[in-house]
Amino acid sequence: MNGNDDDLTPEEAKALKGLADGAAPPAALERATVARLRERGLLAPPRRARASWLLAAAAGVALFCVGLFVGHHSGAAPSGGGAQPRFALFLYDAPLEFTLTDAQMQERVSEYRNWAIALRRSGAEIHGEKLKPEANRLGDARSGDAPLGGYFIVSAKDWNAAMEIARSCPHLKHGGTIEVREIEKT
User: Fold this and answer.
1) Which secondary-structure segment (H or E) carries 177?
2) Whether residue 18 is found in the same domain as residue 86
3) Cβ distance 91 to 180 under 8 Å?
4) Which of 48, 92, 122, 138 is deepest in the core (most CB within 10 A)?
């Protein structure tokens, strides 16, 4: 607020005062509103939030990879022998990913790990890799694009099967984006 309420009607001024004097909005509503304002370029993140976001993203990627490592070494042997095409599932972070607490991030990592284990048990070959948070972008990439948080390499009989696997990934239900690309045989 800039302190200049001259342009407001009496009803608007009363409503604005009621907002200022009332209870705080629910945290989820506030986060969603702030995210939408930032998406539209109407609100820039505070400088310390960027540092916190980088730290949270690094912790999230580390926990994610620990979950993958544990899932990869769970004893479930992939069947498939590598004859099927392979696909990369690139996971781009959700807008509010940086707001997760450590406990929420651990719960999410466990969810991804269980997803990967279930895929292995069903016969799919799946592997993930840890990505460091630092990156250099070349070309026409916009600085506001969501960061690449991790990726999976999966085997699938065709594009439809790869898309079905991608749609089953918990990353989508948490607001993230998945890019599916077939790995060319070389």
Assistant:
1) strand 177-182
2) no
3) no
4) 92
